[in-house]
Description:
The protein is mainly α. Helix content is 26%, strand content 0%. The protein contains 1 helix and no strands. The longest helix is centred in the C-terminal third of the chain and has 11 residues, at 28-38.
Amino acid sequence: MDSVIMTDNLATIRETEIDRTIGTLTGMTEINDALRHTLAIS
Length: 42
């Protein structure tokens, strides 16, 4: 099963609000590219 990371709805939360880890992220290059695109950062 694949996962989807949406980069157009971002929020800042406190680390204490995170209850548990539900998975891992791989391919951070693709995530960084998507965030740069969404935030219009070159």
